[in-house]
Amino acid sequence: MNKEKAEMIVISHLSDAQEMAGISSSSSNNHINFAKYVILKCKGDLNQEIEPDILWEEFTKTKFFKA
User: Which helix (H) or strand (E) covers residue 47, if one does?
Assistant: First the structure.
């Protein structure tokens, strides 16, 4: 798995949410909620490296993910 800076993952997902806002509110909300999930998992320290694919997989199993 590839590790990436948490801050880049949060920024990327918030940008995706902005692009999808007018198209699909559930997809947009998933990206926003995932960004929040990453922030919480990192305890606010977005300088650490994370494995975004693993976190996304975890996130999709939470009540905050809407398929």
Answer: none
Token pair 């694919």 is found at 53
CA distances from 49 to 7, 10, 21, 56 (A): 9, 12, 28, 14
User: Helix, strand, or coil here: 21?
Assistant: coil
pLDDT digits (tens, 9 = 90+) for 22-55: 888 899 999 999 999 999 999 999 999 999 999 9
Rounded to an integer, what distance in angstroms lies between the CA atom of residue 19 and that of residue 5? 22
- pTM here is 0.89
Please, are residues 10 and 39 in contact by the beta-carbon 8 Å criterion? yes
- The ranges assigned to domains in the chain are 4-59
Count of alpha carbons within 13 Å of 39, Cβ hemisphere only?
11
